[in-house]
Amino acid sequence: MDVLNQVKTIVKQAITEAVTAAGIIDAAQMPEITLEVPKDKAHGDFATNVAMQLTRIAKQNPRQIAEQIIANLQKEKAYIASADIAGPGFINFKMNKVYLYPLIAEVAEQGSRYGAINVGQGLKVQVEFVSANPTGSLHLGHARGAAVGDALCNVLDLAGYDVSREYYINDAGNQVLNLAKSIEARYLQALGQDAEMPEDGYFGEDIKGFAAELAADKGDSLLSLSEEERRSYFRTYGLEKELDKIKRDLGRFGVQFDHWFSETSIYEDNLIPGVLQELRDNGHVYEEDGATWLNTTPLGDDKNRVLIKNDGSFTYLTPDIAYHRNKFERGYDRLINIWGADHHGYIPRMKAAMTALGFEADRLVVLIAQMVSLFQNGEKVKMSKRTGKAVTMEDLMDEVGVDPIRYFFTMRSMDSHLDFDMDLAVSQSNENPVFYVQYAHARICSIYRQAAEQGIEILPLEQVDLSRLTAEAEFDLLRKIGELPEEVAVAAEQYAPHRLIRYVYELASQFHSYYKGHYVITDDAALTQARLALLGALRTTLANVLRVVGVSAPERM
RNA sequence: GUCCCAGUAGCUCAGCAGGAUAGAGCAUACGCCUUCUAAGCGUACGGUCGGGGGUUCGAAUCCCUCCUGGGACGCCA
User: Where does the Arginyl tRNA synthetase N-terminal domain lie (predicted)?
Assistant: First the structure.
């Protein structure tokens, strides 16, 4: 258990003992004690509302109860310096700050794993995200999914889950035929022929590029193939090109998937008949109007869904059900899908399908990332699918760099529509929070460099007198550092990686303020060592959180 | 019409398994570089938490209802 939780446990124990010693209630009636860090520092290091919770059981008013608890509190052994009643009946604890010092050693020992907390207990979780169709370049929405998904995976990993990242490649449906037709049309155009783009074609610049390459490499030789052969050629060629591009973009973005799962493999491995049979056996399938339906309405969906169209082909849903069953069969305890807001209506039918297959619906968690709007020069940038005019993820990385994108896209709650301000992201000014946090890290590194230049040797922690850290700002920093494991736990449980951006920003802010008011390198050698030790823990903490959200931690700026 | 998300300071957003005087950044105004990076620090200004009901010791947070904005409602993927 981490240092802060140990202390909290001790304080809770002391409270429980005080309550029973005062004879307020029996130990058996004792509610779960919540000990929180008050928002307002004036309210002490910890606060509890236990006196208010006991009001009903003890039939006394909360302030009376609080008084009795305080009177019976064994303070010393729980590091409590003072306990006071406040407001409607809160008990505020001021702690003897020595409880904070062991944090520095804890961070040093855990290093890049500091912040880890085992709430996941090795539960096998698979996170499927991005999964953009291989029919065009990744755009802003995909970038958001990638940033949030990867950060979430890192958070879950730190929280003790066994995490696997997966990308589902939709390489089997109609859209791939459209891709082939689109490339064909662009190829013909590149050869100077008149060719119309298909109705549902893909108009992206990437496809023009691929077609132009082909025209340059192969000349008009592909024209001699039959239409079928040619389509097949364009299909394979297009998929390979698009997938390459996607992998390249995501790699550059710092996202590595463990599995790339191909929809085509579902057909190759013949997974669908078994799934259909199972759904039939479970009594969820019926025939109507020449089609085969899944009866999802009794399972929470608002209408039933077609599995096999009356032309004999599958809908998108059918292989997707097979895919999700396959995921469970691979042994994952929980599946997390991150989808764009435009797919939200798809959730009930997939959950219904899982229920129909006998899986608990709760084991499938679908997170929705809301839309992204791009602003440039103060105006919303219009995107058009029809003309292929869209800012791609690649464009964005070229223009603003990976760090600001990852920071900005992770910064907001997934539920929130996100306005991405290009001008702010590229600005190297105090308006830009990415640099603010990175700068804190760089500043600490700079202090270490400075110390080295002055010939100051960093002593091993055992030889450092941490009790020299007595400034309020130093206690604040330590407390904040100590909160990381709890932050990680909450971020993991709520699937809310944006909380860590908040956290790291606040930590950086506390440091900048401290930096202004306190010199680390002073004539007092022991104090210098103590402060360097504190900064060491701080630097590790900043770097760890930045790594979780996929932002670099530069040593100088 | 049904479903989902959002509505909190001038702007962008946190806070929402109920807790103390609702926070942050930006913007605005005014200060701070003679020792470790001013990509920094500090002070001030700024609010009917969309409206209205309810639940209770206590509601931005939970419930109901209405309004506004966005998205989804295919035998497309």
Answer: 5-95
